[in-house]
Design a protein that fits this description.
With about 400 residues, this protein is α/β, with parallel strands linked by helices. It has helices at about 1-30, 90-95, 95-110, 120-130, 135-150, 155-170, 200-215, 230-245, 255-270, 285-300, 320-335, 350-360, 380-390, and strands spanning about 65, 70-75, 190-195, 220-225, 245-250, 275, 305-315, 335-340, 365, 375.
Length: about 400
């Protein structure tokens, strides 16, 4: 029996070997499938980013190239635009909305009454005082009208308001509001000095005045005498470019008198007609700062230049508070006229009367907005008509 089991085992082994050999042969003849992973492709190099050159900006200050002395740097002429920005001056009526709203409601109330009553006089007095016309001028205006009503010259509310408007215009008429420019020999520039407290808009005013004078055909140089306020010279440089003017600037913290003197001398050497001199804002009760301003005023008149205007810049929104400060500036610098800024943003337009009555100085320019053309010559008739417009 043993041999039978041996034979069966041999048969099983031989069968298994045969099956294994058959499978290997089939595997060798089967086609090989392509790889499922696609071949790696080298990535394209990234395209360089396109960088546009920066557009020229009119806010960049001109680069300084020459040193006039240890404090003063003169801007070259080739960085100043040849032509100032064009502009259209606004009308008083378009920009006096706040002052007109304050007075307009009162005027409507007076006009709507059957006659001229005690309430009419009270309303007019309060409105004029709230508009910062001032006690003195308010009394003068209303006392004169009371006499005319008492004599029956004025009998109706509408006639009362018409007479008030005419009296207010007459109160401001007669002052010389022109900016003084004296033609002289070549190399003898006019100098206009701008003074005032901090934040009233002196530097901006200079830029706007420069644009106006260029429109009149005059050559202009701006002297950055505010050497203490950070970026004051850069701000004036921007305005110089916009107004088509040249610029003289000094190092921060330098002597402002030296900057302005150098500006006058540079203008003289280049036969420039007009120097607009900026000064640092200062409070009237700081004796050392006011004395420094007196020095600036004296130095500006030295050399070949002639100081023909000292313009005190006042913020209209400060109202009566600016008058005390203005008295000190007038004493220190022989102020010749007033620039009243931000008149469009104030309901206190009557400050014009207080300034001219209390200071005896004409308001020559007023600011009616922020753009380069929004500084205009003060016209009393247009101003009063804008307050009374319905």
């Amino acid at each position: 029996m043993t041999w039978i089991y041996l034979v069966l085992a041999a048969v099983v082994i031989l069968f298994g070997v045969g099956v294994l050999l058959l499978n290997r042969r089939r595997a060798s003849t089967r086609p090989v499938a392509p790889p499922t992973t696609p071949p790696r492709v080298a990535a394209k190099p990234p395209r360089p980013a396109t960088v546009k050159p920066p557009a020229p900006s009119d806010s960049a200050p001109p680069a300084a190239t020459g040193v006039a002395d240890e404090d003063v740097i003169t801007a070259p002429t080739d960085v100043v635009t040849d032509e100032p920005e064009s502009f259209v001056q606004p009308r008083f009526r378009d920009r006096m909305a706040k002052s007109r709203a304050l007075l307009g409601g009162v005027f409507s109330g007076v006009r709507g009454r059957a006659g001229i009553t005690d309430e009419s006089w009270d309303d007019l007095e309060q409105a004029l005082l709230r508009a910062d016309v001032g006690v003195r001028v308010t009394n003068e205006l209303l006392n004169g009208l009371r006499l005319r009503v008492k004599s029956k010259e004025i009998t109706e509310p509408a006639g009362l308001l018409t007479a008030l408007q005419a009296d207010m215009i007459a109160h401001l008429d007669g002052a010389d509001r022109s900016l003084t420019f004296e033609p002289g020999e070549p190399g003898s520039p006019n100098v206009w000095l701008f003074v005032g407290v901090n934040g009233v808009g002196k530097t901006t005013t200079i830029g706007k005045v420069g644009a106006q004078q260029r429109e009149l055909g005059r050559t202009v140089l701006m002297a950055a005498g505010d050497t203490f306020r950070a970026a004051a010279a850069e701000q004036l440089a921007t305005w110089a470019q916009r107004a088509g003017s040249q610029l003289v600037r000094g190092s921060e913290g330098g002597d402002p008198s030296a900057v302005i003197f150098d500006g006058v001398e540079s203008a003289s050497a280049r036969n420039i007609d007009l120097v607009l001199a900026d000064t640092a804002g200062r409070l009237h009760n700081k004796a050392n700062l006011m004395e420094e301003l007196r020095k600036v005023r004296r130095v500006a008149a030295k050399g070949r230049g002639r100081v023909t205007e000292v313009l005190l810049v006042i913020d209209a929104t400060t109202g009566q508070n600016g008058l005390t400060q203005a008295r000190e500036f007038r004493e220190a610098t022989d102020v010749t006229g007033i620039v009243l800024t931000k008149l469009d943003g104030s309901a206190k337009g009557g400050i014009v009367f207080a300034i001219e009555t209390e200071l005896g100085l004409p308001v020559k320019l007023v600011g009616l907005g922020e753009t380069i053309g929004d500084l205009v010559a003060f016209e009393p008739t247009e101003f009063i008509e804008a307050l009374f417009a319905e």
